[in-house]
Amino acid sequence: MSPEEHPAPPATPGKKARLSRELVLSAALALVDAEGLDALTMRRLGHELGRDPMSLYRYAANRAALLDGVSELVLNELAIIPDDPNWQAQLRRIAHDLRLLALRHPNVVPLLVTRPLSTPLGLRPLGTLRPLEQILSLLIDAGFAPDDALHVYRAYYGYLYGHILNELQEFVVDPDENEALLRLGLHRLPPKDFPRLRALAPVLADYDGMAELDEGITILLSGLAARLSLPGAPAGPSDLSGA
Amino acid sequence: MSPEEHPAPPATPGKKARLSRELVLSAALALVDAEGLDALTMRRLGHELGRDPMSLYRYAANRAALLDGVSELVLNELAIIPDDPNWQAQLRRIAHDLRLLALRHPNVVPLLVTRPLSTPLGLRPLGTLRPLEQILSLLIDAGFAPDDALHVYRAYYGYLYGHILNELQEFVVDPDENEALLRLGLHRLPPKDFPRLRALAPVLADYDGMAELDEGITILLSGLAARLSLPGAPAGPSDLSGA
DNA sequence: GCCTACAGTCTACACTGTAGAGAAGTTGTT
DNA sequence: AACAACTTCTCTACAGTGTAGACTGTAGGC
Predict the structure, then answer these.
(1) Is A169 found in the same domain as A86?
(2) Count of domains for chain A
(3) Residue B238 domain-assigned?
(4) Separation of first and last alpha carbons in chain B
């Protein structure tokens, strides 16, 4: 929309180094992080790399595949699982890691959430399935029967993604404003229809996503452990609240 | 891509009835339900309604607004809250309703999940905020302090959306195939790297989303009730498992 | 040196959202 | 009935999209 040109390929020194899938994907990720998903067009990415847009098709079959590649790249940042036998601690750590990852790449989250809806399990990029496999491993090694492991995984991962989505969408409109209502743009809501929401503006405005996630995880994991009557220490709240 | 033409506007009888926002939005929803989000282009929708594409701009400022309208339309199908004082039962019912709604309109789910990430609370279509307001009301009426109500809402809604996403992405590739591995397309995964996942194919293939949701809700709600030490009956598993 | 692959480029096409001007239709007033 | 004011709808045009297909340049092997 805005007529501004995008200045130049960031002055790549060794001008014409060969491309590679890694190069293409990380440029794509950088672009998405910096300017959002819509900015990631083939032409723009080509421009960013100082190459013709069509050259990208050597490294990704089409735009969708490029997006898959970006998802995969991001999920690869998620370190997984030394052999800690304490599954609850392990899952809690992963949850916090994934949350931070999402906060670091908020523009990619829609991809993580949306692409799997149109790609059957077996056709997903392997990198996006690795967390699943490894969490299953973790749980089975901790003593769960395979079906129960899957069960736990589903509840856990479901909640985790839900939390992340929740947290990412409660963002602040105008950080300079110090009236809570205005910071969140809630003043536009008709007071008759939305009294509770408006009244909660101050509480909404300071949201401790990390603490909420931690508590939710605690509830969920200890609940699951109880139900499956399994190798679970009582799973008290973790001690991360200072980080 | 495919050269097939889309046959004709479904032979609207009173040919040139005036358009209206409701008409436009419900045609849009029908189109999305039938052919997916990508099929919803201005030209195509115009064609479907027997009108010039540009006429749509009287009823939605642009494509994004159209999508918001569709989200809103879908969420309006969610009936909310007679004055049942049993908040747990109430939230459980809403969860199942929303799940069914999502299953009825799977192609809209990406919108429900994605649009709020780029629209601050105060600027969302009012219809999408109503569930939030009403659930808050429900909880506060049930005796929660406002902050706690928000707290419960976040955990609850987070989990709920997470579950729905989870369930929708575990879909079957080839229902005719009776080997579980093949039905899910899992045979493409390298056995060395994904032993657990492959072994779980049969369990994956029959997923009782409703039961899983119900159990997760039970765990979460009773956990929350316990933590907030509040008006909560023990919240045993519900009796919906036969529907 | 030529030969074979592959990497990168160019051109072209069908399709997208939407600005802007105008035509057609509807409604209210006399 | 005739005009005016207003709304709804249509037409044309444009800049931008993904990508097919043919082409050019370059790198390595002998």
Answers:
(1) yes
(2) 2
(3) no
(4) 41
Within this chain, do residues A40 and A84 fall inside the same structural domain, yes or no? no
What CATH number does the domain containing A20 carry? 1.10.10.60
Find the domain containing A100 and state its range. Answer: 80-227
Residues B130, B53 share a domain = no
| Res. A239: pLDDT tops 60 | no
Residues A54, A85 within the same domain: no
Cα dist. B199→A127, A134, A144, A217, B193 in Å? Answer: 19, 13, 14, 27, 12
Give the CATH number of the domain where residue B218 resides. 1.10.357.10
Q: Is residue B242 part of a domain?
A: no
Amino acid letter for position B103? L
pLDDT tens string A24-54: 999 999 999 999 999 999 999 999 999 999 9
Q: Is residue B239 over pLDDT 50? A: no
Whether residues B42 and B91 share a domain: the answer is no
pLDDT band at A14 (very low <50, low <70, confident <90, very high): very low
Same domain, B47 and B133: no
- Band the pLDDT of A238: cuts 50, 70, 90: very low
In this model, does residue A172 exceed pLDDT 50?
A: yes
For residue B193, pLDDT over 90 is answered with yes
- Say which amino acid occupies A150: L
Instruction: Say how far apart CA A46 and CA A141 lie, in whole Å.
Output: 46
Q: What is the ipTM of this complex?
A: 0.90
Asked if strand C comes closer than 7 Å to B20 Cβ, the answer is no
Closest to A201 in 3D by CA, of B43, B3, B143, B146:
B146
pLDDT in tens, B154-169: 999 999 999 999 999 9
Within 7 A of a protein CB, which nucleotides of strand D?
8-12, 16-22
User: What distance in Å separates the CA atoms of residue B188 and residue B182, rounded to the nearest whole number?
Assistant: 9
Q: Is residue B173 part of a domain?
A: yes
Interface of B with A in 181-210 (CB under 8 A): 184-190, 193-197, 199-200, 203-204
**Which CB contacts under 8 angstroms, 24+ apart, belong to B231-236?**
B231/B87, B231/B142, B231/B143, B232/B88, B233/B86, B233/B88, B235/B88
CB B175 within 8 A of CB B183: yes
Distance from CA of B12 to the nearest CA of A (A): 32
Please indicate, yes or no, whether residues A88 and A158 belong to a single structural domain of this protein. yes
The shortest CB-CB distance from A117 to any of B168, B196, B197 is to B168
